[in-house]
Amino acid sequence: MPMIRLDTKNIASERLGKEHGIDTAREFSAWAKKLDGFVADLRKRKTDPKAMLGWIDLPENNGELAAIETYAAQLDEKFTDLIVLGIGGSSLGALTVVTALQHPYRNLQAQGQGLRVHFVDNVDPDVIKGLSEVLNPQTTLVNVISKSGTTAETMSAYLAFKQWLQDAVGEAYKKQIIATTDPEAGILRPLARREGYTTFEVPPSVGGRFSVLSAVGLLPIALAGIDLRELLRGAAAANAMIEKPIAENPIKQSALIQYLAYRRGKAISVLMPYSTRLRYLSNWYVQLWAESLGKAVNRDGSLVNEGSTPLAALGATDQHSQVQLFNEGPNNKIVTFVRVANFDNETLIPDAEPGVAQLSYLAKQSFNRLINAEQSATAHAIAAHGRPNYTIELKRLDAYNLGFLLQFFEWQTALMGELTYIDTYNQPGVELGKKYTYALMGREGYEDLRKELEEAGI
Fold first, then answer.
1. DSSP summary character for residue 423
2. C-alpha to C-alpha distances, 264 to 241, 261, 286, 334, 375, nearest whole angstrom
3. Of the residues 18, 33, 434, 451, which is catalytic?
4. Which of 171, 320, 444, 455 is catalytic?
5. 1 pLDDT above the threshold of 70
6. Half-sphere exposure of 203 (CA within 13 A, CB side)
7. Domain 4-44+244-420 has CATH 3.40.50.10490
8. CA-based nearest residue to 97, from 16, 211, 260
9. pLDDT of 159 above 80
10. DSSP assignment, residue 131?
11. Among residues 64, 153, 201, 291, which one is catalytic?
12. By CB neighbour count within 10 A (0-12 exposed, 13-18 middle, 19+ buried), where does 296 fall?
């Protein structure tokens, strides 16, 4: 099992009082049967592809794993770089894993573990032009990721980088573009067949924000030189843990803590890892939580406007900014800390200013001890201000434990959706903006919306 520990002392009513704290022993016992029922129901519903619960089975039954490993193993050694074209769930999961597990400055190294990976997850013209100026098209692969093939941001970037490759390498561009898309639906699949691109599948029963352990995330992760088997093995351990009773189950505990805090007015859920390598975990979490749980109506169609607001923070950096708000602003937040007990490197602080008494206390201690002391101190200080928080501690940051943590948060989100009785897997709130964009860009079939926008002066 993963080496993970959940510290809930700073959520307890003994520490925070009844208004802001939780009687964890009583609440865990009271909700145990209902949470077990939610897990059983989710597992039962996953057999329906329309339920969008295919993410549950990805750790144990990943149909693309062998093909991805074969592709990565047979890749021509001349390739040095990979451009990933995707937005939201098509980008953030792989970005999280690659940033966490590659060398922290891999993209500055001429050689190292796996390809250098560059994520184009926006349509900023300066970034797109700048990347094409610094990379060598002769040694660069492009992975375009879109379930439908109609995502404006992704496909505009695809058009730009296809032309970039075509201008430089001619017909060889077809061997340098990989398409990850729906197995049948959408426009990217037939386009890829026509062009002869290598293709991988986005499972129809997996939504983008839950897709990190599908080919969407696994292909870039594999090309980055990261052990897919260990990543999936860790995620499978989370699937095993979810079956345990709540007293032995940090996933159920964290989901219930989030729900009870939300019902007590903690409408902002902060994720604050104390590891720069985990900085994008918070961004991934923000999308997963917001898009899954922010819903206007519940499953009965009643207007509820549910959803807590996720907030990304980074320790220790945001101790010097956001923590001021956490401690002295509205008491409407619950903070989840993630810390790493054992970093890969034991880096000592040298005694480079021996005559300065105000710095001598740091000398010959380790950065490892300092960053975790900062986390412990911040968690205690937030609780001292009467604000709830809890800590997830990983024994080390590796593929196995990160795989567990990703599946942990996906289960936590799924259970929160069950607790709040909303559809966790749709996203109607993002669709209208997409349609207005199509109208503004002149896409056929959106003339009525274009007229509406013109009348609004847009």
1. -
2. 27, 5, 21, 10, 25
3. 434
4. 320
5. no
6. 29
7. yes
8. 211
9. yes
10. H
11. 291
12. middle
Mean pLDDT of the chain: 96
pLDDT per residue as tens digits for the range 220-279: 999 999 999 999 999 999 999 999 999 999 999 999 999 999 999 999 999 999 999 999
In contact, 188 and 149? CB cutoff 8 Å: yes
Comparing C-alpha atoms, which of 139, 169, 173 is closest to residue 158?
Answer: 173
Burial 27-57 (b: 16+ CB within 10 A, else e): bbeebbeebbebbeebeeebeeeebbbbbbb
The CA distance from 306 to 312, in Å, is 20
Which CATH code is given to the segment(s) 55-231? 3.40.50.10490
Give the pLDDT confidence score for residue 2 in this predicted structure.
58
The pLDDT of residue 434 is 84
- 391-427: per-residue pLDDT in tens? 999 999 999 999 999 999 999 999 999 999 999 999 9
Residue 289, C-beta contacts closer than 8 angstroms, at least 6 positions apart: 269, 308, 310, 413, 416
- What is the chain's length? 458
The pLDDT tens digits of the residues spanning 423-457 come to: 999 999 888 888 889 888 899 899 888 889 988 99
- The shares of helix, strand and coil residues in the chain, as percent rounded to the nearest 5, are 55, 15, 30
Average pLDDT over residues 282-291: 98
Q: Is 380 a catalytic residue?
A: no
pLDDT for 75: 97
What residue ranges do the domains of the chain occupy?
4-44+244-420, 55-231
Q: Mean pLDDT across the stretch 315-343?
A: 97
B/e letters for 191-212, b = 16+ CB within 10 Å, e = fewer, are bbeeeebbbbbbbebbbbbbbb
291 catalytic? Reply is yes
In degrees, to the nearest 5, what angle opens at C-alpha 311 toward C-alphas 308 and 315?
140
